[in-house]
Design a protein that fits this description.
With 143 residues, the first copy, chain A, is mainly alpha-helical. The first copy, chain A, has a single domain (5-137), classed as Arc Repressor Mutant, subunit A, CATH 1.10.10.10. Chain A is 50% helix and 6% strand. Chain A contains seven helices and two strands, in the order αααββαααα. In chain A, strands 1-2 form a two-stranded antiparallel sheet. In chain A, a hairpin with a 5-residue loop joins strand 1 and strand 2. At the A-B interface, helix 1, helix 5 and helix 7 of A face helix 1, helix 5 and helix 7 of B.
Chain lengths: 143, 143
């Protein structure tokens, strides 16, 4: 049931930017503070930028910031935008003979919708309500 | 969000057995009808047996059958029993500095519980209600 690391790191980047709302944050800074690969983060940031979650500014003094208020960034949307597939089972990896008549698919779709609906109750703003606790944990390495 | 093939095939085996409730079904028969690996199915059947979902009888004329009525086999239980992990994100694959104070975990647990609760509305009996449609699709190769 694991979400991809792509989605995981996307949430971390968005939280980090929401926590540092007045700053120009660099990818290197996020990578160091979360101890994750900078190359991996670059791809994620690029995609988050294209999807309108964040703005990036190149060059010296450049960096990134959220493109919209954290209150309007929904966790369900982030998962749906970043996951490579929203399938729960690969009915057609090896073509399944009952795929066309299978009730399991319906059950899984209902369950997936419940999952996404529950995530939809949370925005990035909700996830950083404990800002005072989170900030010191993410300021080991500043830009 | 994909469940493992292990869980997928478990559901298929249980449905197959529920559809052939008076027969002694062999692993080879299920493998051929679903076009899946017999070796893979052997491991799954062994585990389903240990967990009390099915009974197996070795030797000539042997085979397997459900150990309990399909009405009492819940899809949520099968997923919980067969998935190697019920985690949604790997917070500690690379230790996350905010893991101890992270609200994302709470959101994910709520979402996972909704997912499992929705699956809990379905039993194996519900999944084979369209028995007349399913049977011809699974009888291409009989034992």
């Amino acid at each position: 049931m694991l979400l991809t690391r792509h989605t995981d790191y996307s949430v971390r980047v968005l939280m980090y930017l929401a926590l540092h709302d007045s700053d120009k944050v660099t990818i290197a800074e996020v990578a160091r503070n979360f101890t994750v690969s900078r190359n991996h983060l670059m791809k994620i940031v690029h995609r988050l930028g294209r999807l309108g979650y964040l703005n990036t500014q190149r060059g010296k003094g450049g960096g990134m910031s959220l493109a919209k208020p954290p209150e309007s960034i929904n966790l369900s949307d982030v998962v749906q935008d970043m996951e490579p597939t929203l399938a729960i089972m690969e009915c057609n990896a090896v073509p399944c003979p009952i795929a066309g008549s299978c009730a399991v698919k319906i059950a899984l779709l209902e369950a997936r919708d419940c999952f996404l609906q529950a995530l939809g109750h949370y925005t990035i703003a909700d996830l950083i309500k404990n800002k005072k606790q989170l900030l010191p944990l993410l300021e080991r390495f500043l830009a």
